[in-house]
Amino acid sequence: MGMVLYMKKLTVIFILCLLGIANSQAETESGANARQLVEKFQSELLAVMKNGKQLGYSGRYDKLYDPVTSSHDLTKIARIVIGKEWEKLTEEQQQKLVDVFTKLSVASYAHNFKDFSGESFTFDSLEETARGGVVVHAHLSVPDDKDVKFDYMLKEKGTSWRIINIIANGVSDLALKRSEYTTILQREGFDALIAKINEKIDTYSKL
Amino acid sequence: MAMSKPYSSNPDSKALQIFRHLIIGSLTVALVGCAATKANEQQIVKSKTDPYENINRKVYGFNDTVDNYVAEPISNAYKKITPQFVQTGVFNFFNNLKNINVVINDFLQGKFAQSAQDTGRFAINSTVGVLGLFDVAKKVGLEQNNEDFDQTLAVWGVPKGSYLVIPFLGPTTTRGIPGAVVDTATNPSSYVGAPVQLVSLLNTRASAEGSLKFIDEAALDPYVFTRESFLQWRTSLATDGKQEASDFEDELIEDDSGAKEAVNKQGSSLGLTAGDKKFEQAANAFKNVALSFEQTAKSFEDASNKAATLKK
Known about the structure:
By secondary structure, chain A is an alpha+beta fold. Chain A contains seven helices and five strands; from the N terminus they run H-H-H-H-H-E-E-E-E-E-H-H. Helix content of chain A is 66%, strand content 18%. Chain A has a five-stranded antiparallel beta sheet with strand order 1-2-3-4-5.
Protein backbone atom coordinates (compact mmCIF):
# COMPACT_ATOMS: atom_id res chain seq x y z
CA MET A 1 0.00 0.00 0.00
CA GLY A 2 2.74 2.39 1.03
CA MET A 3 4.64 1.54 -2.13
CA VAL A 4 1.68 2.38 -4.37
CA LEU A 5 1.28 5.74 -2.73
CA TYR A 6 4.97 6.38 -3.20
CA MET A 7 4.76 5.51 -6.92
CA LYS A 8 1.79 7.79 -7.32
CA LYS A 9 3.73 10.61 -5.75
CA LEU A 10 6.67 9.99 -8.03
CA THR A 11 4.39 10.03 -11.06
CA VAL A 12 2.89 13.33 -10.01
CA ILE A 13 6.34 14.82 -9.52
CA PHE A 14 7.41 13.47 -12.90
CA ILE A 15 4.40 15.03 -14.63
CA LEU A 16 4.99 18.30 -12.89
CA CYS A 17 8.57 18.28 -14.09
CA LEU A 18 7.46 17.68 -17.66
CA LEU A 19 5.03 20.57 -17.41
CA GLY A 20 7.81 22.68 -15.99
CA ILE A 21 10.05 21.97 -18.95
CA ALA A 22 7.29 22.73 -21.43
CA ASN A 23 6.56 25.93 -19.56
CA SER A 24 10.17 27.10 -19.54
CA GLN A 25 10.41 26.40 -23.27
CA ALA A 26 7.37 28.56 -23.87
CA GLU A 27 9.03 31.30 -21.85
CA THR A 28 12.18 31.11 -23.89
CA GLU A 29 10.10 31.53 -27.01
CA SER A 30 8.43 34.63 -25.63
CA GLY A 31 11.86 35.93 -24.69
CA ALA A 32 12.96 35.47 -28.27
CA ASN A 33 9.91 37.39 -29.50
CA ALA A 34 10.62 40.23 -27.10
CA ARG A 35 14.25 40.35 -28.21
CA GLN A 36 13.17 40.42 -31.83
CA LEU A 37 10.87 43.36 -31.22
CA VAL A 38 13.60 45.35 -29.47
CA GLU A 39 16.17 44.62 -32.17
CA LYS A 40 13.75 45.60 -34.91
CA PHE A 41 13.13 48.90 -33.18
CA GLN A 42 16.84 49.51 -32.64
CA SER A 43 17.62 48.92 -36.30
CA GLU A 44 14.82 51.26 -37.36
CA LEU A 45 16.22 53.87 -35.00
CA LEU A 46 19.75 53.48 -36.38
CA ALA A 47 18.42 53.72 -39.94
CA VAL A 48 16.79 57.05 -39.13
CA MET A 49 19.96 58.26 -37.41
CA LYS A 50 21.97 57.42 -40.52
CA ASN A 51 19.78 59.72 -42.61
CA GLY A 52 19.18 62.03 -39.67
CA LYS A 53 20.80 65.13 -41.14
CA GLN A 54 18.98 65.02 -44.48
CA LEU A 55 15.67 64.16 -42.84
CA GLY A 56 15.75 67.05 -40.40
CA TYR A 57 13.63 67.07 -37.26
CA SER A 58 10.25 66.69 -38.92
CA GLY A 59 11.54 64.01 -41.28
CA ARG A 60 12.90 62.02 -38.34
CA TYR A 61 9.64 62.53 -36.45
CA ASP A 62 7.56 61.16 -39.33
CA LYS A 63 9.88 58.22 -39.96
CA LEU A 64 9.99 57.30 -36.26
CA TYR A 65 6.26 57.64 -35.55
CA ASP A 66 5.31 54.11 -36.59
CA PRO A 67 8.37 52.32 -35.17
CA VAL A 68 7.93 54.04 -31.77
CA THR A 69 4.17 53.63 -31.48
CA SER A 70 4.16 50.00 -32.63
CA SER A 71 6.98 48.90 -30.30
CA HIS A 72 6.04 50.82 -27.15
CA ASP A 73 2.78 50.41 -25.23
CA LEU A 74 2.36 54.15 -24.85
CA THR A 75 -1.16 54.00 -23.44
CA LYS A 76 -0.01 51.72 -20.66
CA ILE A 77 3.11 53.81 -20.05
CA ALA A 78 1.05 56.99 -19.75
CA ARG A 79 -1.26 55.28 -17.30
CA ILE A 80 1.58 53.96 -15.12
CA VAL A 81 3.36 57.28 -15.22
CA ILE A 82 0.54 59.17 -13.54
CA GLY A 83 -0.36 56.34 -11.17
CA LYS A 84 -3.46 56.73 -9.07
CA GLU A 85 -4.30 60.05 -10.68
CA TRP A 86 -5.40 58.15 -13.81
CA GLU A 87 -8.65 57.09 -12.17
CA LYS A 88 -9.47 60.69 -11.33
CA LEU A 89 -9.28 61.86 -14.95
CA THR A 90 -12.26 61.99 -17.28
CA GLU A 91 -12.13 59.74 -20.33
CA GLU A 92 -11.49 62.83 -22.44
CA GLN A 93 -8.55 63.85 -20.27
CA GLN A 94 -7.11 60.33 -20.39
CA GLN A 95 -7.26 60.39 -24.19
CA LYS A 96 -5.69 63.84 -24.26
CA LEU A 97 -2.84 62.66 -22.03
CA VAL A 98 -2.16 59.60 -24.18
CA ASP A 99 -2.15 61.82 -27.30
CA VAL A 100 0.38 64.36 -26.05
CA PHE A 101 2.43 61.64 -24.37
CA THR A 102 2.70 59.77 -27.66
CA LYS A 103 3.82 62.92 -29.45
CA LEU A 104 6.36 63.63 -26.70
CA SER A 105 7.82 60.13 -26.93
CA VAL A 106 8.30 60.30 -30.69
CA ALA A 107 9.61 63.89 -30.43
CA SER A 108 12.22 62.99 -27.84
CA TYR A 109 13.52 60.17 -30.04
CA ALA A 110 13.60 62.50 -33.04
CA HIS A 111 15.48 65.08 -31.01
CA ASN A 112 17.94 62.87 -29.14
CA PHE A 113 18.92 60.57 -31.99
CA LYS A 114 19.58 63.14 -34.65
CA ASP A 115 22.60 61.82 -36.50
CA PHE A 116 24.94 58.91 -36.87
CA SER A 117 28.59 58.55 -35.95
CA GLY A 118 29.15 54.82 -35.88
CA GLU A 119 26.83 53.86 -33.00
CA SER A 120 25.65 50.29 -32.70
CA PHE A 121 23.38 48.29 -30.41
CA THR A 122 24.53 44.95 -29.01
CA PHE A 123 22.29 42.39 -27.34
CA ASP A 124 23.61 41.18 -23.97
CA SER A 125 21.08 38.92 -22.29
CA LEU A 126 17.46 38.10 -21.57
CA GLU A 127 15.82 38.05 -18.19
CA GLU A 128 12.33 36.93 -17.31
CA THR A 129 10.69 38.72 -14.44
CA ALA A 130 8.53 37.23 -11.72
CA ARG A 131 5.36 38.76 -13.13
CA GLY A 132 5.65 37.56 -16.68
CA GLY A 133 7.65 40.40 -18.15
CA VAL A 134 10.85 40.15 -20.14
CA VAL A 135 13.90 42.37 -19.80
CA VAL A 136 16.18 42.66 -22.81
CA HIS A 137 19.63 43.80 -21.67
CA ALA A 138 21.57 45.57 -24.40
CA HIS A 139 24.09 48.35 -24.81
CA LEU A 140 24.77 51.14 -27.25
CA SER A 141 28.38 51.43 -28.31
CA VAL A 142 29.46 54.94 -29.10
CA PRO A 143 32.84 55.39 -30.81
CA ASP A 144 35.32 57.22 -28.54
CA ASP A 145 32.90 57.22 -25.65
CA LYS A 146 31.58 55.02 -22.88
CA ASP A 147 28.94 52.42 -23.72
CA VAL A 148 25.41 53.26 -22.64
CA LYS A 149 23.53 50.37 -21.04
CA PHE A 150 19.94 50.00 -22.24
CA ASP A 151 17.60 47.64 -20.45
CA TYR A 152 14.23 47.25 -22.16
CA MET A 153 11.37 46.00 -20.06
CA LEU A 154 8.58 44.38 -22.09
CA LYS A 155 5.10 43.11 -21.39
CA GLU A 156 2.83 41.03 -23.55
CA LYS A 157 0.01 42.91 -25.20
CA GLY A 158 -2.39 40.55 -26.92
CA THR A 159 -0.16 38.33 -29.01
CA SER A 160 2.83 40.62 -29.30
CA TRP A 161 5.37 42.21 -26.98
CA ARG A 162 5.60 45.89 -26.21
CA ILE A 163 8.25 48.02 -24.52
CA ILE A 164 7.00 49.37 -21.20
CA ASN A 165 10.16 50.90 -19.84
CA ILE A 166 13.73 51.72 -20.80
CA ILE A 167 16.45 51.83 -18.16
CA ALA A 168 19.48 53.75 -19.43
CA ASN A 169 22.63 53.28 -17.36
CA GLY A 170 20.54 52.28 -14.38
CA VAL A 171 18.13 55.20 -14.60
CA SER A 172 14.56 54.12 -15.22
CA ASP A 173 12.63 56.35 -17.60
CA LEU A 174 9.34 55.15 -16.17
CA ALA A 175 10.23 55.85 -12.53
CA LEU A 176 11.69 59.22 -13.50
CA LYS A 177 8.59 60.27 -15.44
CA ARG A 178 6.29 58.92 -12.76
CA SER A 179 7.91 61.10 -10.10
CA GLU A 180 7.83 64.14 -12.32
CA TYR A 181 4.28 63.74 -13.62
CA THR A 182 2.67 62.90 -10.29
CA THR A 183 4.45 65.85 -8.67
CA ILE A 184 3.19 68.25 -11.33
CA LEU A 185 -0.33 66.82 -11.18
CA GLN A 186 -0.42 67.26 -7.43
CA ARG A 187 1.16 70.69 -7.35
CA GLU A 188 -0.31 72.29 -10.44
CA GLY A 189 -3.02 70.10 -11.89
CA PHE A 190 -3.87 68.41 -15.19
CA ASP A 191 -3.90 71.44 -17.50
CA ALA A 192 -0.44 72.51 -16.32
CA LEU A 193 0.90 69.03 -17.02
CA ILE A 194 -0.47 69.04 -20.58
CA ALA A 195 0.87 72.55 -21.13
CA LYS A 196 4.33 71.53 -19.93
CA ILE A 197 4.39 68.46 -22.15
CA ASN A 198 3.35 70.55 -25.16
CA GLU A 199 6.06 73.06 -24.32
CA LYS A 200 8.66 70.24 -24.39
CA ILE A 201 7.43 68.97 -27.76
CA ASP A 202 7.71 72.51 -29.06
CA THR A 203 11.25 72.90 -27.70
CA TYR A 204 12.32 69.60 -29.23
CA SER A 205 11.03 70.67 -32.64
CA LYS A 206 13.08 73.86 -32.55
CA LEU A 207 16.42 72.68 -31.21
CA MET B 1 28.09 63.22 -32.32
CA ALA B 2 25.02 65.22 -31.60
CA MET B 3 23.02 62.63 -29.80
CA SER B 4 22.87 63.79 -26.24
CA LYS B 5 23.68 60.85 -24.07
CA PRO B 6 21.15 60.99 -21.32
CA TYR B 7 22.89 59.65 -18.31
CA SER B 8 26.32 58.67 -19.46
CA SER B 9 28.17 61.45 -17.77
CA ASN B 10 27.85 62.45 -14.19
CA PRO B 11 24.52 63.93 -13.25
CA ASP B 12 26.10 65.10 -10.05
CA SER B 13 29.10 66.79 -11.53
CA LYS B 14 27.63 70.24 -11.05
CA ALA B 15 26.97 68.87 -7.76
CA LEU B 16 29.15 66.96 -5.45
CA GLN B 17 32.44 67.95 -6.83
CA ILE B 18 31.94 71.66 -7.09
CA PHE B 19 33.18 73.40 -3.96
CA ARG B 20 33.44 70.04 -2.33
CA HIS B 21 35.54 71.51 0.39
CA LEU B 22 32.86 73.82 1.65
CA ILE B 23 30.50 71.01 2.49
CA ILE B 24 29.99 71.13 6.19
CA GLY B 25 30.31 74.88 6.54
CA SER B 26 27.74 75.66 3.88
CA LEU B 27 25.39 73.00 5.17
CA THR B 28 25.29 74.77 8.50
CA VAL B 29 24.75 78.16 6.91
CA ALA B 30 22.04 76.89 4.60
CA LEU B 31 20.02 74.99 7.10
CA VAL B 32 20.12 77.79 9.60
CA GLY B 33 19.39 80.30 6.86
CA CYS B 34 16.48 78.34 5.48
CA ALA B 35 15.12 77.60 8.90
CA ALA B 36 14.71 81.32 9.39
CA THR B 37 12.73 81.88 6.17
CA LYS B 38 8.97 81.85 6.42
CA ALA B 39 7.03 78.90 5.19
CA ASN B 40 4.05 79.97 3.14
CA GLU B 41 3.59 77.50 0.32
CA GLN B 42 0.88 74.88 0.57
CA GLN B 43 1.71 71.50 1.95
CA ILE B 44 2.69 69.17 -0.81
CA VAL B 45 2.60 65.41 -0.75
CA LYS B 46 6.02 64.35 0.38
CA SER B 47 8.21 61.62 -0.91
CA LYS B 48 9.70 59.27 1.62
CA THR B 49 13.27 59.84 0.50
CA ASP B 50 12.83 63.59 0.26
CA PRO B 51 11.29 64.77 3.53
CA TYR B 52 13.01 68.17 3.24
CA GLU B 53 11.63 68.91 -0.22
CA ASN B 54 10.64 72.47 0.66
CA ILE B 55 14.15 73.40 1.78
CA ASN B 56 15.75 71.35 -0.97
CA ARG B 57 13.73 73.09 -3.68
CA LYS B 58 14.91 76.47 -2.43
CA VAL B 59 18.54 75.42 -2.36
CA TYR B 60 18.11 73.86 -5.81
CA GLY B 61 16.78 77.19 -7.07
CA PHE B 62 19.70 78.98 -5.47
CA ASN B 63 22.24 76.59 -7.02
CA ASP B 64 20.58 76.96 -10.38
CA THR B 65 20.87 80.74 -10.17
CA VAL B 66 24.52 80.54 -9.12
CA ASP B 67 25.13 78.19 -12.01
CA ASN B 68 23.38 80.42 -14.55
CA TYR B 69 25.05 83.62 -13.46
CA VAL B 70 28.48 82.45 -12.29
CA ALA B 71 29.51 78.90 -13.05
CA GLU B 72 28.09 78.59 -16.58
CA PRO B 73 29.51 81.86 -17.97
CA ILE B 74 32.95 81.12 -16.52
CA SER B 75 32.81 77.57 -17.79
CA ASN B 76 31.76 78.75 -21.26
CA ALA B 77 34.64 81.20 -21.32
CA TYR B 78 37.01 78.42 -20.28
CA LYS B 79 35.73 76.21 -23.09
CA LYS B 80 36.04 79.02 -25.59
CA ILE B 81 39.65 79.94 -24.83
CA THR B 82 40.94 76.44 -24.14
CA PRO B 83 41.72 74.10 -27.03
CA GLN B 84 39.96 70.72 -26.90
CA PHE B 85 43.18 68.75 -26.37
CA VAL B 86 44.02 70.88 -23.32
CA GLN B 87 40.52 70.34 -21.91
CA THR B 88 40.89 66.60 -22.42
CA GLY B 89 44.31 66.68 -20.78
CA VAL B 90 42.99 68.57 -17.76
CA PHE B 91 40.06 66.16 -17.48
CA ASN B 92 42.39 63.17 -17.68
CA PHE B 93 44.78 64.65 -15.12
CA PHE B 94 42.14 65.12 -12.42
CA ASN B 95 40.43 61.89 -13.33
CA ASN B 96 43.70 60.04 -12.88
CA LEU B 97 44.22 61.50 -9.41
CA LYS B 98 40.76 60.20 -8.46
CA ASN B 99 42.02 56.67 -9.10
CA ILE B 100 43.87 56.69 -5.77
CA ASN B 101 40.49 57.05 -4.12
CA VAL B 102 38.99 54.43 -6.47
CA VAL B 103 41.69 51.91 -5.50
CA ILE B 104 41.13 52.53 -1.78
CA ASN B 105 37.40 52.01 -2.18
CA ASP B 106 37.82 48.91 -4.36
CA PHE B 107 39.81 47.51 -1.50
CA LEU B 108 37.32 48.54 1.19
CA GLN B 109 34.54 46.88 -0.80
CA GLY B 110 36.54 43.69 -1.12
CA LYS B 111 36.94 44.02 -4.90
CA PHE B 112 40.56 42.93 -4.89
CA ALA B 113 40.87 42.05 -8.58
CA GLN B 114 39.37 45.39 -9.58
CA SER B 115 41.64 47.07 -7.06
CA ALA B 116 44.69 45.57 -8.77
CA GLN B 117 43.37 46.58 -12.17
CA ASP B 118 42.75 50.16 -11.06
CA THR B 119 46.21 50.34 -9.51
CA GLY B 120 47.59 49.30 -12.89
CA ARG B 121 45.46 51.96 -14.53
CA PHE B 122 46.84 54.64 -12.22
CA ALA B 123 50.42 53.43 -12.70
CA ILE B 124 50.22 53.37 -16.51
CA ASN B 125 48.58 56.77 -16.82
CA SER B 126 50.92 58.40 -14.30
CA THR B 127 54.00 57.17 -16.17
CA VAL B 128 53.38 56.43 -19.86
CA GLY B 129 50.42 58.84 -19.74
CA VAL B 130 52.68 61.71 -18.56
CA LEU B 131 51.31 62.37 -15.06
CA GLY B 132 47.85 61.38 -16.18
CA LEU B 133 47.47 63.86 -19.03
CA PHE B 134 46.82 61.02 -21.47
CA ASP B 135 44.46 58.16 -20.81
CA VAL B 136 46.71 55.42 -22.14
CA ALA B 137 45.13 52.77 -19.92
CA LYS B 138 41.82 53.05 -21.75
CA LYS B 139 43.53 52.26 -25.03
CA VAL B 140 44.88 49.01 -23.59
CA GLY B 141 41.43 48.06 -22.35
CA LEU B 142 41.54 49.22 -18.72
CA GLU B 143 38.24 51.04 -18.32
CA GLN B 144 37.80 53.71 -15.68
CA ASN B 145 35.84 52.39 -12.72
CA ASN B 146 33.64 54.60 -10.62
CA GLU B 147 33.99 53.94 -6.91
CA ASP B 148 33.80 56.30 -3.96
CA PHE B 149 33.33 56.17 -0.24
CA ASP B 150 29.58 56.68 -0.43
CA GLN B 151 29.37 53.48 -2.49
CA THR B 152 31.59 51.73 0.04
CA LEU B 153 29.22 52.76 2.82
CA ALA B 154 26.34 51.41 0.73
CA VAL B 155 28.15 48.10 0.30
CA TRP B 156 28.70 48.00 4.05
CA GLY B 157 24.98 48.36 4.55
CA VAL B 158 24.63 51.98 5.63
CA PRO B 159 21.21 53.22 4.40
CA LYS B 160 21.31 56.21 2.08
CA GLY B 161 19.16 58.38 4.32
CA SER B 162 17.34 61.45 3.09
CA TYR B 163 17.91 63.31 -0.13
CA LEU B 164 19.58 66.68 0.45
CA VAL B 165 20.49 69.54 -1.85
CA ILE B 166 23.56 71.36 -0.54
CA PRO B 167 24.29 74.97 -1.52
CA PHE B 168 26.91 75.13 -4.31
CA LEU B 169 27.37 71.37 -4.18
CA GLY B 170 24.01 70.10 -5.33
CA PRO B 171 22.39 66.72 -4.66
CA THR B 172 23.56 64.27 -2.05
CA THR B 173 22.09 62.05 0.63
CA THR B 174 22.87 61.96 4.33
CA ARG B 175 25.17 59.05 3.63
CA GLY B 176 26.86 61.04 0.89
CA ILE B 177 28.18 63.63 3.33
CA PRO B 178 30.62 61.45 5.29
CA GLY B 179 31.32 59.85 1.91
CA ALA B 180 32.34 63.15 0.37
CA VAL B 181 34.46 64.08 3.40
CA VAL B 182 36.50 60.89 3.08
CA ASP B 183 36.76 61.24 -0.71
CA THR B 184 38.04 64.79 -0.37
CA ALA B 185 40.59 63.65 2.19
CA THR B 186 41.88 60.90 -0.10
CA ASN B 187 42.17 63.04 -3.22
CA PRO B 188 45.60 64.65 -3.66
CA SER B 189 44.13 67.63 -5.52
CA SER B 190 42.49 68.68 -2.22
CA TYR B 191 45.90 69.49 -0.80
CA VAL B 192 47.25 71.82 -3.46
CA GLY B 193 46.67 75.51 -3.91
CA ALA B 194 43.49 77.32 -4.84
CA PRO B 195 44.44 77.88 -8.53
CA VAL B 196 44.63 74.13 -9.14
CA GLN B 197 41.29 73.63 -7.45
CA LEU B 198 39.78 76.36 -9.56
CA VAL B 199 40.93 74.60 -12.72
CA SER B 200 39.48 71.38 -11.34
CA LEU B 201 36.13 73.11 -10.79
CA LEU B 202 36.11 74.61 -14.27
CA ASN B 203 36.91 71.25 -15.75
CA THR B 204 34.12 69.60 -13.77
CA ARG B 205 31.55 72.17 -14.86
CA ALA B 206 32.72 72.02 -18.46
CA SER B 207 32.42 68.25 -18.65
CA ALA B 208 28.99 68.32 -17.00
CA GLU B 209 27.67 70.60 -19.74
CA GLY B 210 26.04 67.74 -21.67
CA SER B 211 24.14 66.37 -18.67
CA LEU B 212 22.97 69.78 -17.57
CA LYS B 213 21.74 70.58 -21.06
CA PHE B 214 19.91 67.27 -21.15
CA ILE B 215 18.12 68.06 -17.89
CA ASP B 216 17.12 71.45 -19.27
CA GLU B 217 15.72 69.88 -22.40
CA ALA B 218 14.07 66.78 -21.01
CA ALA B 219 12.76 67.72 -17.59
CA LEU B 220 9.21 68.85 -16.96
CA ASP B 221 10.12 69.47 -13.35
CA PRO B 222 13.92 69.85 -13.24
CA TYR B 223 14.04 69.48 -9.46
CA VAL B 224 12.27 66.11 -9.45
CA PHE B 225 14.12 65.00 -12.57
CA THR B 226 17.47 65.74 -10.95
CA ARG B 227 16.48 64.08 -7.70
CA GLU B 228 15.20 60.88 -9.28
CA SER B 229 18.04 60.48 -11.75
CA PHE B 230 20.60 61.25 -9.04
CA LEU B 231 19.18 58.70 -6.59
CA GLN B 232 18.77 56.02 -9.24
CA TRP B 233 22.21 56.65 -10.65
CA ARG B 234 23.82 56.39 -7.20
CA THR B 235 21.94 53.15 -6.46
CA SER B 236 23.02 51.74 -9.78
CA LEU B 237 26.67 52.64 -9.04
CA ALA B 238 26.57 51.23 -5.52
CA THR B 239 25.26 47.91 -6.80
CA ASP B 240 27.46 48.03 -9.91
CA GLY B 241 24.34 48.03 -12.07
CA LYS B 242 23.34 44.63 -10.77
CA GLN B 243 20.34 45.64 -8.72
CA GLU B 244 17.13 44.02 -9.78
CA ALA B 245 15.63 47.09 -11.32
CA SER B 246 13.21 44.86 -13.13
CA ASP B 247 11.58 43.66 -9.93
CA PHE B 248 10.94 47.19 -8.87
CA GLU B 249 9.60 48.01 -12.32
CA ASP B 250 7.41 44.97 -12.16
CA GLU B 251 5.84 46.23 -8.99
CA LEU B 252 5.47 49.70 -10.39
CA ILE B 253 3.65 48.30 -13.37
CA GLU B 254 1.44 45.80 -11.62
CA ASP B 255 0.50 47.86 -8.69
CA ASP B 256 -0.42 50.97 -10.59
CA SER B 257 -1.78 52.66 -7.55
CA GLY B 258 -1.31 50.85 -4.27
CA ALA B 259 1.81 50.99 -2.17
CA LYS B 260 3.41 54.19 -3.38
CA GLU B 261 0.43 56.29 -2.48
CA ALA B 262 0.27 54.72 0.93
CA VAL B 263 3.85 55.74 1.55
CA ASN B 264 3.15 59.28 0.43
CA LYS B 265 0.15 59.62 2.67
CA GLN B 266 2.09 58.46 5.64
CA GLY B 267 4.76 61.00 4.82
CA SER B 268 2.38 63.94 4.83
CA SER B 269 0.53 62.91 7.94
CA LEU B 270 3.78 63.19 9.84
CA GLY B 271 3.62 66.90 9.18
CA LEU B 272 3.70 69.39 12.02
CA THR B 273 2.40 72.91 11.87
CA ALA B 274 4.15 75.13 9.38
CA GLY B 275 6.13 77.41 11.68
CA ASP B 276 8.01 74.87 13.75
CA LYS B 277 8.42 72.58 10.87
CA LYS B 278 11.42 74.24 9.32
CA PHE B 279 13.32 74.11 12.58
CA GLU B 280 12.23 70.56 13.07
CA GLN B 281 13.45 69.70 9.57
CA ALA B 282 16.77 71.41 10.06
CA ALA B 283 17.23 69.68 13.37
CA ASN B 284 16.32 66.36 11.79
CA ALA B 285 18.75 66.87 8.95
CA PHE B 286 21.51 67.42 11.49
CA LYS B 287 20.41 64.38 13.41
CA ASN B 288 20.51 62.31 10.24
CA VAL B 289 23.98 63.52 9.38
CA ALA B 290 25.16 62.66 12.87
CA LEU B 291 23.48 59.29 12.56
CA SER B 292 25.24 58.67 9.26
CA PHE B 293 28.56 59.46 10.89
CA GLU B 294 27.73 57.07 13.66
CA GLN B 295 26.80 54.35 11.19
CA THR B 296 30.00 55.02 9.30
CA ALA B 297 32.05 54.64 12.46
CA LYS B 298 30.19 51.45 13.24
CA SER B 299 30.79 50.13 9.75
CA PHE B 300 34.48 50.79 10.19
CA GLU B 301 34.35 48.80 13.38
CA ASP B 302 32.50 45.97 11.66
CA ALA B 303 34.95 45.99 8.80
CA SER B 304 37.96 45.85 11.08
CA ASN B 305 36.32 43.05 13.06
CA LYS B 306 35.78 41.17 9.82
CA ALA B 307 39.38 41.77 8.84
CA ALA B 308 40.49 40.51 12.25
CA THR B 309 38.45 37.32 11.85
CA LEU B 310 39.85 36.83 8.38
CA LYS B 311 43.40 37.05 9.74
CA LYS B 312 42.65 34.25 12.17
